[in-house]
Every structure is written in C-alpha cells, then in structure tokens.
C-alpha cells in the first residue's frame, strides 16, 4: 500500500490496496495504527458490495446492527446512506429514508445513542455527485484538538456536564420521521455521555464528545443555558483549524474514528442528484469515560 498524509491534524489516503480481499495480519496492524494516530483513512479505487464491505469491517471488530431494518441495504449490518433505494430508485426528498439522511448534515458521531457507542465507521461511495454539484462532501472535526484549544474557563465549565443521546429523539429534529416501534425503543433507550471524554488508550487525553443529530442542548444546567452552550460548541468546532472536508470520488472507501471525530454531510440538492453509499460500523466495547468516571478518578 502507498500512504499519503492529507492534513497536519489528521487523515491519510491509501492507494494500491484492495479492501475486498483477505487482509494480511501485518496490514491490519498497520491500518489499526493509522486509524489510532491519524483518525481518518481514505482508500481509493475500491470495488465493494454489502458482503465485501461487511467482511472488511470485521477486521476491526464486530459489526453493529441497525435499529430500523427498512433503512438497510440487504444486510441488517449495512446501512444505506443514500437517497437511492435498494432497487436503484431515486427517492423523493420527502421520503422518510431521505429525511433520515438529511439529519446527517448536523455534526454527530455515529451510534452515540448506544451505551457502548461505535468505534469506527467505514463508508463506501457507490454513486457520488458530479464535480459541478454543490455540497455532498463529508466534513470531519477533530475533537482532541478542539478540546486542547479551548479556553481554560470553558474546560472548567464543560468538565462536569453531559448530554442525553436518544435515537428516538431524532424525531424532535425531523418531525417527518415516523415514531419508532415499541421494540425499537426498547432496544435503544436514551443514554447519557459526558461532554468531555477521557481516552485511556491515548494516554488519558481528553476530547469533546457531543452531537447535534439527537438533541440541541447540553445537560447539567438549565435548558436555556444548555441550548446556548450547545450552539456555542457547534460554532466553535466548525472552525477550519479543526476540520477536514472529504471531496468524494466514486469508489472511495473512507474509515474514521468516532471516538475522536465528529462528522456531517454538506447538504446538496437531494431532488436533482443521486448519492448512494453503504456503511458498516464497528461496535464499541467500552463506555464513554468522563473526568468523574470511577475508572478515571481511581487513577488520580
């Protein structure tokens, strides 16, 4: 494989590597080291389907299954991140499946609504927008650097705070989506995570950890103060010095670390353009640890 660094803060591009084949152990170790240190990988010129994407994703852990079966493409573990149906139909912008994709234009980290949130996401571009189209890129923001650059008074303010993450609460932001079934709600009850995340596998570094696709407020303060702080955080982490924007080419496969990156899709003309992608997601194995978690406090 050939590796090219994409930016100073994070990201590498890999060429001359076939993700559809059985991956050698030494290459898996290289990729794991890269995703740990650079947080984002783009594999160019891949040729994948749902099965081969699932097989590649399994090199990094167990696959998540998605809450809503009708949002998947063939396999419950593969998510259809598209305005194109499984049968190849260009879906209306008002289709429930497209409304769910529009919500991805808000900063988020995948599966934050789980007690053990996702570790890595791996997204394959089957159909991408033409060069002349506006939008459609996927943007990432580095929460490790964003935390490091916070003013000290903001670090002190955020340290004890939390956010509630609820898959069902997407309906507050996107009222056009149907209510979840009782079974779906039971499988994914709301969870709360600290806004400041501590990473034992990164020498106990801290990062920000919040989303905008399930709620627009921060807990641990009044509702009005929580909304104001959330809005400030969104503006703060959107600054160019924290961000990298991926301009898609067909057959790109990108992989990112949900533990330290937020991401969002840049909105595009959903009625005019087709955008078809499939995603596999690696299950998390640990809860989000904050400064006041027992495992962290016992270390002090």
Topology, please?
Layout: E1 2-5, E2 12-15, H1 25-38, E3 40-43, H2 50-57, E4 72-73, E5 75-80, H3 96-102, E6 120-127, E7 138-142, H4 143-148, H5 152-158, E8 162-165, H6 170-173, H7 182-187, E9 191-194, E10 196-199, E11 205-208, H8 223-237, E12 243-246, E13 253-257, E14 261-265, E15 276-281, H9 294-297
What does this protein look like?
This protein has 300 residues and is α+β, with helices and mostly antiparallel strands. The protein has a single domain, classed as Clavaminate synthase-like (Double-stranded beta-helix, 4-Layer Sandwich), CATH 3.60.130. The protein has helices at 25-38, 50-57, 96-102, 143-148, 152-158, 170-173, 182-187, 223-237, 294-297; strands spanning 2-5, 12-15, 40-43, 72-73, 75-80, 120-127, 138-142, 162-165, 191-194, 196-199, 205-208, 243-246, 253-257, 261-265, 276-281. It is globular and about 45 Å long. The termini are far apart.
Tags for this model:
globular, single chain, 8-stranded mixed β-sheet, alpha+beta, 15 strands, Double-stranded beta-helix, 9 helices, 3-stranded antiparallel β-sheet, 300 residues
Please tell me how large the radius of gyration is: 19 Å
Mean pLDDT: 93
Extract low-pLDDT stretches: none
Number of domains: 1
Approximately how much helix is present in the residues?
10-25%
**What summary fits the major beta sheet?**
8 strands, mixed
Globular, elongated, flat, extended or rod-shaped: what is the shape?
A: globular
Per CATH, the architecture is 4-Layer Sandwich
For the largest beta sheet, what order do the strands appear in spatially?
Answer: 1-2-3-13-6-15-5-4
Order of helices and strands: EEHEHEEHEEHHEHHEEEHEEEEH
Task: Give a count of the beta strands, DSSP E runs of length 2 or more.
Answer: 15
| CA distance, first residue to last residue | 42 Å
Beta fraction of the residues? Answer: 15-25%
